[in-house]
């Protein structure tokens, strides 16, 4: 950990490059399938392999997906964009070059707004979003001293989203990546699966004296595929660079990898060894020209985005920050909450039900809202029973809800009636039971009367048992307190 003095002295500067694999069923320039986990080298055509005489053809769906993201980030959508070849040799790159966008990316500029832990907002500026193809995968077997190559992923469509160097902490970087993940999933353009590598991130890290206008020399940390490792790698790198500057050493511009087991970054290659990619315009692909109408059509079909819904949940439904954040994690949960809110006025209770009993049920049964057996109407009725004091929340969640799950066609009210669960607020029903409780516990009654007022909870518990959970807590408390006072 850096001392306060050193963090006051040096500012951390981070720029991120996020790759999101587009959820198109075929590749960026070929018809090959893109299923994850297919047998190696079964989704590879001559186009993907760059055989002479083959020609790439742009996947319009991928283009549309990139534009969706650009519109969601308020980027400028290029009316004309084009592709370039980035040349280098590596065994996972069958053509010897990657088709990407260098000079004229599909989306220019833009911003992503983050809500930080304390509720404040930060605008992160984007440099660009461009389309490019992915490389294949190398699989190394140290035991057999062999490496294999699987070209299934080669040619798969990616967007690369590049931020300006305007992130200032590892927390901001992690929240940024989480926001991007939410956005691409809401937009339906990427499955957001970080374990399978559908979303991965390079972090560019530098430090400079606080107040300095010029940027320090940056180090690029490659391919992190978890939030935790992104945060750890940035923190490690901040400390390492400050440590070097403090003893008068220079930062070497280089590419490093993060070793998650050891929690350290290690050098891969320095700038001097960096490839000269010799970008040049891809001669086999014409420039992409977009009409205003086409862009407007894409725009018209954009769904509500997580941040807009977050604000709506805060303002319209009056939810606390925590609830609003949790309920907008995924589009599925957010839309279920919206449907439920159309059936009830008890918004906070609706949120509690979704974050509590319903969530536990979904987790335990391994289901999602798409196959949740109950309708929003049924849950709204259940909420009403509890909110109107006909049953307690615990009876509603522990007795009626499980029964309702077994009999989704029956209404919550008739379950409550059949199981005789409607709360008794009738004193004449509760009074004899309350008297019994006191008679059965003379010792505790005496203790209460000599000042151990905490025993009230015990008596209440006993009365609840006797009434089989049906005592209205307000009436019951009043009854017992009165009896004990005599
Ligand atoms: P390169 O030419 O090395 O690819 P770019 O200018 O294209 O660098 O930037 C790549 C990424 O690195 C961007 O996300 C950018 O914000 C970030 N970046 C650039 N300079 C710095 C710096 N000094 N410190 C931190 N991040 C930086
Ligand atoms: Mg660059």
Could you characterize what this model shows?
With 486 residues, the chain is an alpha+beta fold. It folds into 3 domains: 4-295, no CATH class; 304-418, no CATH class; 427-485, Orthogonal Bundle (Arc Repressor Mutant, subunit A). The chain is built from 17 helices and 17 strands. The strands form 4 sheets. Strands 1, 2, 6, 7, 8, 11, 12, 13, 14 and 15 form a 10-stranded mixed β-sheet that branches. Helix 3 runs antiparallel to helix 4 and helix 9 runs parallel beside helix 10 (357-365). It is elongated, with a radius of gyration of 30 Å. It starts with a helix and ends with a helix. The mean pLDDT is 94. Bound molecules: adenosine-5'-diphosphate (ADP) and magnesium ion. Residues 13-17, 162-165, 204-206, 215-216, 218 line the site of adenosine-5'-diphosphate.
How many strand segments? 17
The biggest sheet amounts to: 10 strands, mixed
The coarse overall form would be elongated
Bound molecules: adenosine-5'-diphosphate, magnesium ion
Strand fraction band? Answer: 15-25%
List strands and helices in order, with pairings.
Layout (H helix, E strand, L loop, with lengths): L3 H6 E12 L38 H13 L3 E2 L2 E2 L2 E4 L9 E4 L6 E2 L2 E5 L5 E13 L3 E5 L4 E5 L6 E7 L6 H17 L12 E11 L9 E6 L2 H20 L7 E6 L4 E7 L9 E2 L6 E2 L2 H9 L5 H10 L5 H7 L3 H11 L5 H9 L1 H9 L10 H12 L5 H14 L5 H7 L8 H14 L1 H8 L6 H11 L6 H13 L1
Helix pairs in contact: 3-4, 6-7, 8-11, 9-10, 11-12, 14-16, 14-17, 16-17
The structure holds adenosine-5'-diphosphate and magnesium ion.
The site of adenosine-5'-diphosphate has 15 residues, from strand 1, strand 11 and strand 12.
């Amino acid at each position: 950990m850096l001392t306060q003095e050193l963090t006051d002295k040096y500012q951390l500067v981070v720029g991120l490059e996020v790759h999101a694999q587009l959820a198109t069923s075929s590749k960026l320039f070929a018809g090959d399938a893109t299923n994850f986990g297919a047998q190696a080298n079964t989704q590879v055509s001559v186009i993907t392999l760059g055989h002479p005489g083959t020609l790439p053809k742009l996947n319009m769906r991928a283009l549309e997906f990139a534009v969706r993201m650009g519109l969601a980030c308020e980027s400028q959508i290029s009316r004309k964009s084009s592709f370039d070849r980035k040349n280098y040799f590596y065994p996972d790159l069958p053509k010897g070059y990657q088709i990407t966008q260098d000079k004229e990316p599909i989306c220019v500029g833009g911003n992503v707004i983050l809500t930080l832990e304390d509720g404040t907002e930060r605008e992160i500026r984007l440099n660009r979003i461009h389309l490019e193809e992915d490389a294949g995968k190398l699989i190394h077997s140290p035991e057999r001293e062999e490496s294999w190559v699987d070209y299934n992923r080669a040619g798969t469509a990616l967007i690369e989203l590049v931020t300006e160097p305007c992130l200032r902490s590892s927390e901001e970087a992690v929240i940024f990546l989480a926001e991007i993940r939410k956005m691409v999933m809401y937009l339906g353009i990427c499955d957001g699966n970080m374990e399978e590598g559908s979303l991965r991130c390079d972090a560019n890290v530098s430090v400079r004296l606080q107040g300095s206008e010029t940027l320090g020399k940056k180090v690029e940390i490659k391919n992190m595929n978890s939030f935790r490792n992104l945060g750890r790698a940035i923190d490690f790198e901040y400390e390492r660079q400050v440590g070097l500057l403090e003893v008068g050493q220079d930062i070497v511009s280089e590419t490093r990898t993060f070793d998650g087991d050891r929690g350290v970054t290690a050098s891969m290659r320095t700038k001097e060894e960096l490839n000269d990619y010799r970008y040049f315009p891809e001669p086999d692909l014409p420039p992409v020209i977009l009409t205003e109408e086409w862009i407007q059509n894409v725009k018209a079909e954009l769904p509500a985005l997580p941040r807009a819904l977050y604000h709506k949940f805060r303002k319209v439904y009056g939810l606390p920050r925590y609830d609003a954040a949790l309920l907008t994690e995924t589009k599925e949960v957010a839309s279920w909450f919206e449907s439920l809110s159309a059936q009830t006025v008890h918004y906070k209770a609706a949120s509690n039900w979704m974050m509590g009993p319903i969530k536990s049920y979904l987790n335990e049964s391994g289901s999602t809202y798409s196959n949740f057996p109950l309708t929003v109407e049924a849950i709204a009725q259940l909420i009403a029973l509890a909110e109107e004091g006909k049953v307690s929340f615990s009876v509603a969640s522990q007795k009626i809800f499980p029964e309702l799950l077994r009999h989704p066609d029956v209404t919550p009210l008739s379950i409550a009636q059949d199981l005789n669960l409607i709360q008794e607020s009738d004193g004449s029903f509760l009074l004899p039971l309350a008297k019994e409780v006191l008679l059965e516990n003379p010792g505790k009654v005496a203790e209460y009367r000599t000042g151990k007022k905490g025993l009230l909870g015990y008596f209440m518990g006993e009365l609840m048992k006797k009434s089989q959970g049906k005592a209205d807590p307000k009436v019951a408390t009043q009854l017992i307190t009165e009896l004990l006072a005599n």
